[in-house]
């Protein structure tokens, strides 16, 4: 203390700059806690020895404080005076911090932007033969999802109702996004996203949750993307894409104990039940579908240089457990045999280079590199099914580990971990079981399968972990196929909460693939739905896409950058086709179906073909639009940014898709079905013929 006081006065009195610097270097304020009092700093904690690097970093940070030289000297003098008198004033500038007014406590309808695409069930288990992917075309093509900003599969932030739901601790000033962030953000309020502000430790609101994330400064991106779900069905635009916000960092410092790191922070509005949230850097997830309970306070350090996560705060034990459980699941997957699903293994290995790589892999120790397994579609080897069904899922080591966790975790938190563990087991096992679903229907395996699924608990709680729900959805669909039941029959034994979610996922996920019986299915499912938020999702999708619904009236972008309103084509029959660059299914569908259909109608003045590109940026689509690869150059070529305008309105995130419009500017059909040329021609002829008959009988 004595040395500190002397240094204060010596620095003020010294006339020589270098000597002042030398004196200043003797101060040891690095580990002290400072707060502002009238524009100057006061220390509350003791000192420690510091390195030259620490001292340099501290001085660099201190020089950023906007104090004039005179005020700084005056501040030193006042500090020393108080210290001499033994008086330490209290802060008068602490801020009582709380969420903004009018935060919705819970969203009635999940909002947000694009969803990530459906992932092939075997994506995480090995390679899929490209021949299996080449079936796009007449009646059986798989849609391809646009590359977007979440995972990065598509989730953008929608400004509006939830614009103020999440707050950064550092959010008093508006800072424009960097160009790369602005492109990824793709939402109206990007330029005004809250940025950085001077930070004082807030008084945390009672039921709100706060999450801090720290990354090393050298590796910290300009933006992290946080998504959360008040309610969850599936991370897809037509279902529950979630609410996504960009998080911008502030530089850490010695006062916070995070010098050399950047800090991202977010405060959730008060909520009464658990929610799920994910955090990613562009396409790379730091974590996914972790559980956030009401009142959570957690600080997470992601140390990329050392390959670990550290946790601090009252909620640290629960987050440590979630992190450990995720690692256990990933490790089990890492130790599994790589799989290749192919109709012809010999063809795969006929290439000399491929065969050489395969032989090299076989020469490695099998205990360290399990050899690849080749599986035929719908016909896995019997020993694989036997091995899957022989082992009870409840014997997984994750449950023993959870049971051994100490009293730091509540029974509710352990139950949440168990749900996640069950979900990981299902997602790891069911893709392989699905390959043998025909065999599972046979008596040899049917009893074993029923015994295996009987060990899986079916939750009846209002909250269901997203990983578990995804796995249970796959399980129930497989079970109904094996039992030869309808989906309504197959869900009859489920709790009302789980049943509603399974029915909602099926209808919303398959709505645009269903044609025959769609209206009947919508009606029957809605009769079994009591949750308002699921009913609203179904009602919104059906009201916009059902036959006879008024068409979207917004504008799109033309080749020359001009706005184009589709209202100008009212009175014609319109064929709208949606595509994205790089989509092989879009290319195949155009070449096999759309191109001959366009040639058939190109001289008809009452039929207009419009190709709508959905790339993330309008800069790359023009060349492809005129290349005769995705659409005909003579079609009207338009663009809409991914997740915006017409794409958001009709929840279009899988490609190719099409919408058929009658002359009255109403929906005739909104579908993902890939028709043959003859079938699509017939549908267009019916649409124009029906319209002509209506005009004859109703001159108005």
Automatic annotation (TrEMBL):
One Pfam entry name: Thioredoxin_8
InterPro entries: Thioredoxin-like_fold, Thioredoxin-like_sf, Thioredoxin_domain, Thioredoxin_ResA/DsbE_sf
UniProt entry keywords in alphabetical sequence: Isomerase
Domain Thioredoxin: 545-689
Gene3D superfamilies: Glutaredoxin
Lineage: superkingdom: Bacteria
PANTHER family xref list: PROTEIN DIPZ (PTHR42852:SF13), THIOL:DISULFIDE INTERCHANGE PROTEIN DSBE (PTHR42852)
Record's protein name: Thiol-disulfide isomerase or thioredoxin
Native organism taxonomy: Bacteria, Pseudomonadati, Bacteroidota, Cytophagia, Cytophagales
């Amino acid at each position: 203390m004595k040395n500190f006081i002397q240094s204060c006065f010596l620095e003020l009195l010294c006339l020589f700059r270098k000597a002042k610097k030398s004196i200043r270097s003797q101060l040891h304020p690095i580990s002290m806690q400072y707060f502002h009092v009238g524009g100057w700093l006061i220390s509350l904690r003791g000192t420690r020895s510091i390195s030259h690097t620490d001292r340099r970093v501290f001085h660099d940070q201190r020089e950023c404080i906007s104090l004039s030289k005179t005020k700084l000297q005056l501040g030193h003098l006042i500090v020393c005076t108080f210290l001499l008198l033994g008086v330490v004033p209290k802060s008068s500038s602490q801020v009582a911090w709380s969420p903004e007014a009018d935060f919705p406590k819970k969203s009635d309808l999940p909002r947000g932007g694009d969803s990530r695409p459906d992932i092939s069930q075997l994506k995480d288990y090995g390679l899929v033969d490209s021949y299996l992917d080449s079936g796009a075309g007449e009646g059986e093509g798989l849609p391809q999802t646009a590359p977007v900003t979440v995972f990065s599969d598509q989730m953008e932030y929608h400004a509006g109702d939830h614009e103020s739901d999440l707050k950064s601790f550092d959010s008093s000033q508006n800072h424009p996004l960097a160009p790369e962030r602005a492109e990824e953000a793709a939402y109206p309020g990007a330029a005004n996203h809250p940025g950085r502000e001077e930070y004082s430790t807030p008084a945390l609101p009672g039921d709100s949750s706060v999450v801090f994330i720290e990354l090393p400064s050298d590796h910290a991106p300009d933006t992290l993307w946080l998504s959360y779900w008040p309610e969850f069905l599936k991370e897809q635009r037509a279902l529950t894409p979630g609410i996504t916000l960009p998080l911008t960092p502030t530089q850490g410092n010695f006062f916070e104990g995070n010098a050399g790191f950047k800090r991202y922070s977010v405060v959730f509005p008060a909520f009464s039940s658990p929610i799920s949230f994910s955090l990613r850097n562009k396409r790379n997830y730091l974590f996914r579908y972790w559980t956030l309970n009401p009142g959570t306070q957690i600080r997470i350090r992601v140390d990329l240089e050392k390959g670990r996560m550290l946790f601090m705060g009252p909620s640290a034990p629960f987050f440590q457990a979630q992190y450990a459980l995720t690692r256990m699941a990933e490790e089990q997957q890492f130790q599994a045999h790589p799989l290749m699903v192919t109709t012809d293994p010999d063809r795969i290995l006929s290439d000399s280079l491929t065969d050489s790589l395969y032989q090299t892999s076989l020469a490695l120790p099998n205990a360290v590199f399990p050899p690849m397994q080749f599986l035929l579609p719908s016909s896995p080897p019997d020993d694989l099914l036997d091995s899957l069904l022989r082992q009870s899922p409840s014997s997984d080591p994750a449950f023993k580990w959870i049971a051994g966790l100490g009293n730091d975790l509540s029974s509710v938190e352990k139950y949440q971990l168990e749900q996640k563990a069950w979900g990981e087991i299902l997602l790891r096992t069911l893709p392989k079981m699905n390959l043998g679903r025909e065999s599972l229907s046979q008596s040899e395996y049917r009893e074993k399968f029923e015994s295996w699924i009987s060990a899986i608990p079916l939750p009846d709680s209002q909250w269901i972990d997203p990983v578990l729900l995804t796995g249970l959805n796959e399980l129930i669909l497989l079970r109904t196929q094996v039992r030869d039941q309808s989906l309504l029959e197959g869900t009859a034994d489920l709790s009302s909460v789980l049943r509603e979610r399974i029915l909602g996922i099926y209808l919303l996920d398959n709505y645009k693939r269903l044609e025959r019986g769609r209206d009947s299915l919508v009606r029957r499912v809605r009769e079994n739905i009591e949750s308002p938020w699921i009913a609203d999702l179904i009602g919104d999708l059906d009201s916009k896409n059902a036959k006879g619904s008024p068409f979207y009236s917004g504008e799109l972008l033309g080749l020359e950058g001009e706005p184009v309103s589709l209202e100008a084509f009212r009175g014609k029959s319109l064929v709208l086709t949606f595509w994205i660059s790089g989509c092989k299914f879009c290319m195949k569908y155009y070449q096999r179906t759309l191109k001959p259909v366009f040639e058939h109608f190109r001289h008809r003045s009452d039929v207009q073909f419009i190709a709508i590109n959905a790339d993330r940026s309008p800069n790359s689509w023009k060349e492809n639009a005129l290349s005769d690869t995705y659409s005909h150059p003579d079609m009207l070529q338009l663009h809409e940014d991914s997740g915006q305008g017409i794409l958001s309105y009709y929840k279009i995130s899988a490609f190719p898709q099409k919408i058929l419009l009658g002359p009255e500017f109403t929906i005739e059909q909104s579908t993902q079905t890939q028709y043959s040329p003859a079938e699509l021609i017939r549908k267009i002829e019916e649409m124009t013929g029906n319209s002509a008959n209506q005009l004859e009988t109703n001159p108005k």
